[in-house]
Amino acid sequence: GAVVSQHPSWVICKSGTSVKIECRSLDFQATTMFWYRQFPKQSLMLMATSNEGSKATYEQGVEKDKFLINHASLTLSTLTVTSAHPEDSSFYICSARAMTGGLVEAFFGQGTRLTVV
Amino acid sequence: SQQGEEDPQALSIQEGENATMNCSYKTSINNLQWYRQNSGRGLVHLILIRSNEREKHSGRLRVTLDTSKKSSSLLITASRAADTASYFCATDKGGAQKLVFGQGTRLTINP
């Protein structure tokens, strides 16, 4: 199947700093990628839809100025958590869709565990 | 917002027993997918069932889909300790649209 690579897999940062997470589609092009956030023992919540060459679409309640998304190429989307605070500590996962076996499937990155201290 | 609801939220059984998890959703779908997530890890795709399918098998996994009731079930037969994980259903409207995840079931298999 298609491969989505996410980097870094974990990061610890100080409160007030910014952190950038990368999501790459390794063997396919993705015009659309999705960013999810998952708090401990909870489900994945969609944060935003990243669109190549245009602005991201944010879900209700997600601050677009805090979670900056850039989808500058067909294989890379980045999520930057600006002025991070401890409550932003979470597991962030990206996803992209690819055609496999005649079906469009979703493929997920390995996730990034962000800890803000 | 999440549209899927799963039950039970947590399930603990003995190794060798069967585990059944249920998922309900609210809107029409193109397909429904089940994922497994080990603690602190990424998602592993288990099985996809299309809206025109009623049942699908993959190894020890059996998935059913009832579009009239907007529900799906995942059955794991002959459970093993390694099956301990969280299981999520995700509804898919197809195309470039987002997956919407259920709340998940935390499954614990006791040796």
Keywords:
heterodimer, A: 117 residues, mainly beta, 4-stranded antiparallel sheet, 0% helix, globular, B: 111 residues, 6-stranded mixed sheet, 11 strands
Question: Which pair of protein chains has the largest interface, and what are the residue counts?
Answer: A-B, 29 and 23 residues
Assembly annotation: heterodimer
Number of strands of chain B: 11
Instruction: Name the helix and strand elements of chain B from N-terminus to C-terminus, one letter apiece.
Output: EEEEEEEEEEE
Approximately how much helix is present in the residues of chain B? under 10%
Task: Show unreliable segments of chain B.
Answer: none
Q: How is the biggest beta sheet of chain A arranged?
A: 7 strands, mixed
The low-confidence parts of chain A are: none
Cα end-to-end separation of chain B: 36 Å
Proportion of strand residues of chain B: over 45%
Radius of gyration of chain B (CA) equals 13 Å
Nearest-angstrom radius of gyration of chain A? 14 Å
Which structural class do the helices and strands of chain A define? Answer: mainly beta
Distance between the termini of chain A: 37 Å
- Provide mean pLDDT of chain B, rounded: 90
Would you tell me the overall average pLDDT of chain A?
Answer: 92
What is the number of helices of chain A?
A: 0
